[in-house]
Amino acid sequence: MAEARGRSGGGPGGEPGGRAGPGSGRGSGRRAGLLRGVRAYGLIAGMWIRSTLVYRTSFVLTTVGGVVVTGLDFVGIALMFSHVDVLAGHTLAEVAFLYGLSMLSFGIADLALGSMDRLGRRVRDGTLDTLLVRPVPVLAQVAADRFALRRVGRLLQGLCVLGWAVASLDVAWTVPKLLLVPVTVVSGAAIFCAVFVAGAAFQFVAQDASEVQNAFTYGGQTMLQYPPVVFAQELVRGVTFVLPLAFVNWVPASYVLGRPYPLDLPRWAAFAAPPVAVVCCALAGLVWRTGLRSYRSTGS
Predict the structure, then answer these.
(1) Region Disordered: which residues (predicted)?
(2) Rounded mean pLDDT of 7-35?
């Protein structure tokens, strides 16, 4: 089929006479594949959303229940501050700011890619094979599989806490600080998405590693709710230079709150979250492609 397509000379990026320009065919193919994947993701997710909204009462109850359950985390923090004035030099509003940034970023990623931990089950029972024969990127199919709209509750809860924190902080808000908040949320969501994808790719090898993946996603989000000075320096180095979760909230929040940077990072590091997110996503994509190529059907 590829040979016939090459003879026809009608592929994307082809030059007159059937020849493709240097790298043009590959670039056009990647863009077409990306668009096809986004479209497939939207169609599959839309199907699950429509099926969810058929039972609207159930959806509302499960969403409210999710808000209450996730909100208990912040209730615990608030109860702790009822006995102390500061935690490692941070006030309740400052900790709420850290909490809101991490929860909102994680809520976006969890809503978009929270189904990735099902990949190990598909590998074990062989149902991943049915996704491989479809003319749609496998990542889009796995990510949108059983799209759970109820996870929006986690996102809403994080947004509420972040809004309260921004209104309560004793901070001299400047334009860079105001712009840094939404940029940090988007970048943090991309970093968490990269962790979801890389963790799912690991399941091609481990097959039953969803809990390992959750340790870095849900566990990482829980850790980021608290100031970095609470943790050992070795752990802070690990989540800064190895798995850069620190750029989800710790580093940008240090600039906004006027706090010392973790590990004495330079001042410009507060604005490094977008490029860090790009690098994380690129590496996660590479890991995913490597894992998918290693797959040899069930039992491999």
Answers:
(1) 1-31
(2) 53
Judged by phi (left if over 0) then psi (alpha if -120 to 50, else beta), residue 20 lies in beta
Count of domains for the chain: 1
pLDDT at 26: 64
Residue 176 lies in a domain: yes
Model confidence, pTM: 0.85
- Closest listed residue to residue 221, CA positions, set 85, 83, 114: 114
Q: Looking at the domain assignment, is residue 15 inside a domain?
A: no
- 237 CB-near residues (< 8 Å, 6+ apart): 263
Listed residue (30, 12, 32, 31) closest to 21, CA to CA:
12
Distance, CA of 52 to CA of 215 (rounded, Å): 28
Tokens found for residue 230: 């609470």
pLDDT of 68 strictly over 90: no
Single out the residue of 287, 274, 283 nearest to residue 247, CA to CA.
Answer: 274
CA–CA separation, 35 vs 121, rounded Å?
27
Q: Does any domain span residue 17?
A: no
